[in-house]
């Protein structure tokens, strides 16, 4: 298994009305799901901070990550996608566990 939960990867993310666009994303599903089913769930990361969706965003800072983002970025907790490992372009790093847990809480709050 090449990728794991909490990894930040690049993926051709489906964007409504735009088709697909390469974005960083965080793998939120657990490793067991990937091993057994062959796919992962991800939440998109974007540098765009739209006012209409701010309540679903989680701001990222470099101290939350094991690498540096090129721009100030936000986890778009309402934008979840599933993909297979072969659809992931590359691993950028990972998010630290404390912040990952906060993002999971925000995803649950945003969707449910």
Measured as a percent range, the helix fraction is: 10-25%
Shape: globular
Proportion of strand residues: 35-45%
Structural class: alpha+beta
Overview in brief:
Helix content is 20%, strand content 44%.
Structural features:
2 helices, 6 strands, 112 residues, alpha+beta
Explained architecture:
20% of the residues lie in helices and 44% in strands. A six-stranded antiparallel sheet has the order 4-5-3-2-1-6. It has two helices and six strands; from the N terminus they run ββαββββα. The termini are far apart. The mean pLDDT is 93. It is globular, with a radius of gyration of 13 Å. With 112 residues, it is α+β, with helices and mostly antiparallel strands.
Blueprint (SSEs and pairs):
Layout: E1 7-15, E2 19-27, H1 31-37, E3 39-46, E4 57-60, E5 73-84, E6 88-94, H2 97-111
Antiparallel strand pairs: 1-2, 1-6, 2-3, 3-5, 4-5
């Amino acid at each position: 298994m090449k990728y794991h939960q909490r990894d930040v990867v690049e993926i051709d993310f489906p964007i409504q009305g735009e088709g697909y666009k390469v974005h960083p994303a965080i793998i939120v599903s657990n490793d067991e799901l990937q091993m057994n089913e062959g796919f992962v769930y991800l939440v998109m990361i974007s540098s765009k901070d739209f006012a209409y969706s701010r309540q679903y965003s989680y701001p990222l800072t470099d101290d939350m990550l094991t690498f540096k983002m090129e721009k100030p970025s936000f986890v778009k907790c309402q934008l979840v996608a599933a993909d297979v490992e072969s659809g992931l372009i590359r691993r950028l790093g990972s998010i630290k566990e404390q912040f990952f847990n906060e993002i999971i809480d925000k995803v649950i709050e945003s969707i449910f």
